[in-house]
Amino acid sequence: RRKAPGFALLGEPGEAADVVLELKSIADVALVGFPSAGKSSLVAAMSAARPKIADYPFTTLVPNLGVVQAGASRYTVADVPGLIPGASAGKGLGLEFLRHIERCAVVVHVVDCATLEPGRDPVSDLNVIEAELGAYAGDLGIEGGRVPLMQRPRIVVLNKIDVPEARDLAELVRPILVDRGLPVFEVSTASHEGLRSLEFALAERVEAARAAAPQPEATRVVLRPRAVDEAGFTVTRRESAGQVWFAVRGAKPERWVRQTDFSNDEAVGYLADRLARLGVEEALYEAGAVAGDEVRIGPETNAVVFDWEPTLLTGTELLGGPRGTDMRLDDHSRPTRGQKRAEFKERMDAKTAARDELWAEREAGVWTDPDR
């Protein structure tokens, strides 16, 4: 059947929606700090990542991810773009950058010990970044049983100790930071000093965070079988202003109507077959519909309206016509007795008129006078 159909189902309008997608990096460790603190250099030194590194602020505008292997432990490190005072309020694209630390397990403060900017030192830099993280965490909804942002393990990295003045400054502020209960590591991305111990310390904390993380709950699958007496559509008799029609609603009938090309007789016949097999015609009979009644399929604002004529399901004997046609839609109606009587009267009147015309021509001598 229908080895070479003369029609195709029409496409349906797709679903449209406005979606706002927000990218949040998924990493085990987040490196935070002021611009040009050496975060990108630290990622490049610890992993095979090769982020852009330059001697000007905000070189990094998107997070750089690196994979670190420390013994048997493997974890990811995210180089978060530099933060400045007011970042939690959106200053310097702060909100764009802070969202990337929401899913990290360990926060690493990378402090520049070689900065020459006035008013900056490792302790004040750490205080500023901690304040911005605290302000951001206050508006952050933690889901899935994760640890709140300010309660996650934090490590301070005193960077650039390859500079003599920076090493002296690191040794000076180290006791202050240790008194706060913060683990402190002095490193140099240029000479790789202190990096190995930092990698293993991070691995230890990442493994502990993974072990303490709650196991994801399996999604409960609920199977709801369709009711035995559920037809998948409804037929309702409606009446308004003396006009009666039957409304057909249901996912399948409405979808089939939208897919039908009503300029193609074969497509219309195919729709009739589908509706009949679904039981729509039987439901119309039960609702009191008779041939010629108005039927509307779809919502009231955009329904397909047609006069119902009970159909005969198609078979191979009805598919022998030309492609794109349906023999059931051809007009095979027999003339009524009144139509036959009127047709006979028209023929008789035509014969009478022809005889009168011929007699008039004979009386006028048209047939006897060769000159006329």
Strand order of the largest sheet: 2-3-1-4-5-6
For the largest beta-sheet, the strand count, sense and barrel status come to:
6 strands, mixed
Would you identify the CATH H-level superfamily of the largest domain? P-loop containing nucleotide triphosphate hydrolases
- Report the β-strand fraction as a percent range: 15-25%
Overall shape: it is: rod-shaped
Structural class: alpha/beta
Instruction: Supply the CATH class of the largest domain.
Output: Alpha Beta
Give the count of helical stretches: 9
**Within the CATH hierarchy, at the fold level, what is the topology of the largest domain?**
Rossmann fold
Number of domains: 2
Gyration radius over CA: 42 Å
Helix percentage = 25-40%
Spans with pLDDT under 50 lasting ≥5 residues? none
Q: What's the total count of β strands?
A: 10
* Average pLDDT over all residues: 82
Report the oligomer: single chain
CATH architecture of the largest domain: 3-Layer(aba) Sandwich
Q: SSE order, as H and E?
A: EHEEHEHEHEHEEHHHEEH
Our measurement of the CA-to-CA distance between the termini, rounded to an integer number of angstroms, reads 69 Å
